[in-house]
């Protein structure tokens, strides 16, 4: 099927478009070079400059084409039938009525799968379509392809499924009780040997020092139990894509994802095809934050396309999206901190229980992060840590920004505030006295061998001037009429300033960067330097998923810096080039940036070698010219290249890591650490239980800001998601295992009215092990924003507040 028949717009390349229809918005053309983005029109600048994003103008004007805008004249529409029950046996499935509906082209169940029946990120425990049992509400049971999306939905509703509901596993006690239903009998994954019960996905203990001896020396001990609710990634662009069957028997999938090659690795066995016949191209991604690491509609669309011989498009609505992707693990955490009277930490014990839901997803890695980062950015000589994830009949949980460290940070920072109060110390001072630094040994035995400016970050946020008091804070009575927009709940006219108190809170967090525990983490880049229209152009090709983080900007900046050119073309991210790994773990600038840098360096050396053969000398490429060591211009780059471009592909790997020991947790498990501190200022209406975050200041070390404006945007975005977890966001799962709020009407995320001023201090303390000295920046602010806000609410109200999100009933005593 010729690719020129696919339509739309992404960057440039709009040939063959039909007139736009107002009800569909932008369309995306898929074809050779159609996703290329020539960055020379409105972006210039190299490393260290705040260059404009090549996709920025299109996104802010609404012209950017996302995966939901994909179109093909011959396409069918796919729809997934999902289970209404969280745990049930499937007795019978009757497709008769659905198949009889006019316009239906295919209805598939697990009986129609051509090859492998399961997939998974870390091990293959998740069915493509449910077979004899469903394990969570929303599990896919059947697929429909029809000539109209409404026809597909109607056909799915006509499928009759006879279920026999089973007892629920919903928490640790029900998962591990004697006689509890085993959700995955016969597990064969390598984690199974190290867990005490088959309903435990993974368990990671860490033993460090001598806790018993330290406990005997402790002069002050504080204990606390904490809970973190289930947060959703809440990206605005729903899961969507277009699968096109190919003449060679394979399939071309255009999809919004975070990791093209891991999708391909999971899809090929399910489709019964060799990997080279499952070709993926990234389409416009409307946010991700971890939820697009797992498969959603990818296998379903491909199966329907191969069965019907027609392109199949799938687009989830918002409710389907809530059921169709993983969420942040809800957690219960129990901590004990022991210290001397001067505040010196002696030991910490903790137990972290994460609810992984029905399938493993990335739970083992989340457990590893929660355990290894569970003490926070502090020097703790003795520790006893246990983290584990459960299989339950709740929605599957996996990757979300912060990845296990978010849950731990809320608990350990709450403990630090509790310890400061017990000691009568300023909470910032207590943290500074115990702050880790370069050379600190982590509880895993790994030394921190790059800058760790924890104390400085805290000092910077603490030294900022506080925002001015509001008129309603005057003890003599309001001195001016309040601006309702500035009041907690004021836009609803619920308060005019009565009962409002202010609080200030602090927190700091530590997050790893990149994939850990011995994973072969690498990225690939192919760079070509050629002459186009008499000008040198760098062409960069990687499989890195641009999900809004600005990787396309950084890749072009690196090429300009390393090759001395102005014009850079970025080819579509697809599986025709080697893997770039996932756009997660704050790793893409480090890893794909490192790969682009290495490939550019190799191209540069090849060009210089060609120039040396011609001129006898050549030292650098600058501003499109080849120059000698003394700065003499030898020739233009176009003259040296001529009709013979230089193209080189390189892989980049970070320093090797190793798995944590399954019993002691010792090992050099992480490649890099990042740190962020926050100070939150809040105002609380104590009568109504409403919170207004007045300011959320942050200080973060980023090693090197390759694009300072983009770095600031990452810190702001992570802080906003931390704010959401603190006071707004939670997927509510009832005791019957059913989700109560799968919509943006009932699942609340921060809007522009909720996000306060966010002043920043950005430090650049180079990590000598990283490209350009950079440090992954996207996740760390998500950690510390939440506990800083809750600490501020505690100070304002005097309430213990051991659970997030903090709800109005927690503040008014009605919970």
What does this 3D model show about the protein?
The chain is of the alpha+beta class and 815 residues long. It has 18 helices and 32 strands. Strands 6-10-4-17-14-15-16 form a seven-stranded mixed β-sheet, sandwiched between helices. Helix 10 (405-423) packs parallel to helix 17 and helix 13 packs parallel to helix 14. It is globular. The relative contact order is 0.12.
How large is the count of helical segments?
Answer: 18
Shape: globular
Structural class estimated from helices and strands: alpha+beta
- Output the radius of gyration: 27 Å
Average pLDDT confidence is 93
- Biggest beta-sheet profile: 7 strands, mixed
The helical percent reads 10-25%
The strand order across the widest sheet is: 6-10-4-17-14-15-16
Low-confidence stretches: 1-42
Please count the beta strands (DSSP E, at least 2 residues each): 32
What distance lies between the first and last C-alpha atoms, to the nearest angstrom? 60 Å
β-sheet strand percentage: 15-25%
List keywords for this structure.
single chain; 815 residues; alpha+beta; seven-stranded mixed sheet; six-stranded mixed sheet; 24% strand; disordered N terminus; Ald_Oxase/Xan_DH_a/b_sf; Molybdopterin-dependent oxidoreductase; AldOxase/xan_DH_MoCoBD1; Xanthine_dehydrogenase_dsu
């Amino acid at each position: 099927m010729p690719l020129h028949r696919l339509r739309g717009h992404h960057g440039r390349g709009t040939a063959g478009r039909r007139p736009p229809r107002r009800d569909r918005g932008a369309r995306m053309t898929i074809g050779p070079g159609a996703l290329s983005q020539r960055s020379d029109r409105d972006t210039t600048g190299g490393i260290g400059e705040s260059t404009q994003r090549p996709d920025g103008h299109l996104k802010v004007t609404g012209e950017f084409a996302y995966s939901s805008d994909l179109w093909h004249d011959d396409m069918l529409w796919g729809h997934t039938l999902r289970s209404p029950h969280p745990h049930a046996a499937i007795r019978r499935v009757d497709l008769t009525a659905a198949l009889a509906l006019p316009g239906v082209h295919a209805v598939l169940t697990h009986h129609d799968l051509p090859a492998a029946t399961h997939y998974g990120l870390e091990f293959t425990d998740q069915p493509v379509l449910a077979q004899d049992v469903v394990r969570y509400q929303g599990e896919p049971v059947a697929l429909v392809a029809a000539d109209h999306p409404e026809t597909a939905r109607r056909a799915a509703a006509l499928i009759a499924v006879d279920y026999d509901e089973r007892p629920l596993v919903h928490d640790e006690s029900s998962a591990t009780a004697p006689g509890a239903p085993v959700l995955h009998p016969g597990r064969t994954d390598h984690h199974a040997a190290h867990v005490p019960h088959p309903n435990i996905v993974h368990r990671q203990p860490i033993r460090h020092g001598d806790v018993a001896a330290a406990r005997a020396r402790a002069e002050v001990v504080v204990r606390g139990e904490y809970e973190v609710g289930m947060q959703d990634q809440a990206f605005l662009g729903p899961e969507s894509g277009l699968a096109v069957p190919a003449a060679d028997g394979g399939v071309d999938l255009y999809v919004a994802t975070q990791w093209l090659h891991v999708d391909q690795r999971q899809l090929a066995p399910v489709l019964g095809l060799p990997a080279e016949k499952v070709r993926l191209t990234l389409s416009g991604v409307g946010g991700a934050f971890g939820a697009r690491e797992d498969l959603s509609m990818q296998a379903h669309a491909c199966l329907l396309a191969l069965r019907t011989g027609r392109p199949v498009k799938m687009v989830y609505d918002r409710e389907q999206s809530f059921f169709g992707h993983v969420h942040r693990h809800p957690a219960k955490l129990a901590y004990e901190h022991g210290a001397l009277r001067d505040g010196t930490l002696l030991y910490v014990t903790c137990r972290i229980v994460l609810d992984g839901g029905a399938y493993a997803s990335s739970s083992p890695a989340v457990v590893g992060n929660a355990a290894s980062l569970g003490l926070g950015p502090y020097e703790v000589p003795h520790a006893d840590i246990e983290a584990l994830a459960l299989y339950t009949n709740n929605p599957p949980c996996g990757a979300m920004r912060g990845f296990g460290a978010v849950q731990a940070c809320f608990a350990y920072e709450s403990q630090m505030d509790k310890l400061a109060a017990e000691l009568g110390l300023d909470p910032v001072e207590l943290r500074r006295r115990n702050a880790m630094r370069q050379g600190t040994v982590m509880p895993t035995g790994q030394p921190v061998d790059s800058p760790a400016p924890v104390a400085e970050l805290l000092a910077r946020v603490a030294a900022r001037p506080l925002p001015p008091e509001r008129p309603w804070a005057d003890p003599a009575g309001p001195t001016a009429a309040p601006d309702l927009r500035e009041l907690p709940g004021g836009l609803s006219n619920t308060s005019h300033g009565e009962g409002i108190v202010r609080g200030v809170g602090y927190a700091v967090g530590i997050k790893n960067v990149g994939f850990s525990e011995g994973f072969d983490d690498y990225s690939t880049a192919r760079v070509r330097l050629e002459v186009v229209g008499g000008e040198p152009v760098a062409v960069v090709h990687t499989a890195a998923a641009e999900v809004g983080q600005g990787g396309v900007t950084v890749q072009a900046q690196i090429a300009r810096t390393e090759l001395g050119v102005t014009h850079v073309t970025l080819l579509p991210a697809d599986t025709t080039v080697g893997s770039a790994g996932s756009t997660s773990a704050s790793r893409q600038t480090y890893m794909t940036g490192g790969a682009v840098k290495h490939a550019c360096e190799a191209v540069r050396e090849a060009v210089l070698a060609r120039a040396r053969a011609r001129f006898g000398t050549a030292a650098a490429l600058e501003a499109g010219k080849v120059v000698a060591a003394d700065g003499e211009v030898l020739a233009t780059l176009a003259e040296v290249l001529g009709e013979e471009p230089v193209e080189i592909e390189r892989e980049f790997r970070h320093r090797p890591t190793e798995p944590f020991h399954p019993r002691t947790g010792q090992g050099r498990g992480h490649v890099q650490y990042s740190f962020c501190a926050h100070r939150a200022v809040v105002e609380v209406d104590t009568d109504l239980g409403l919170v207004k975050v007045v300011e959320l200041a942050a200080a973060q070390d980023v090693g090197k800001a390759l694009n300072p404006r983009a770095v600031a945007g990452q810190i702001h975005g992570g802080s906003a998601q931390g704010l959401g977890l603190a006071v707004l966001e939670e997927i509510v799962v009832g005791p019957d295992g059913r989700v109560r709020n799968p919509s943006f009407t009932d699942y609340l995320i921060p809007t522009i009215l909720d996000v306060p001023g966010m002043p920043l201090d950005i430090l650049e303390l180079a990590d000598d092990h990283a490209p350009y000295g950079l440090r992954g920046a996207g996740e760390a602010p998500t950690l510390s924003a939440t506990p800083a806000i809750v600490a501020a609410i505690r100070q304002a109200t005097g309430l213990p507040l051991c659970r997030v999100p903090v709800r109005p009933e927690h503040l008014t005593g009605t919970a």
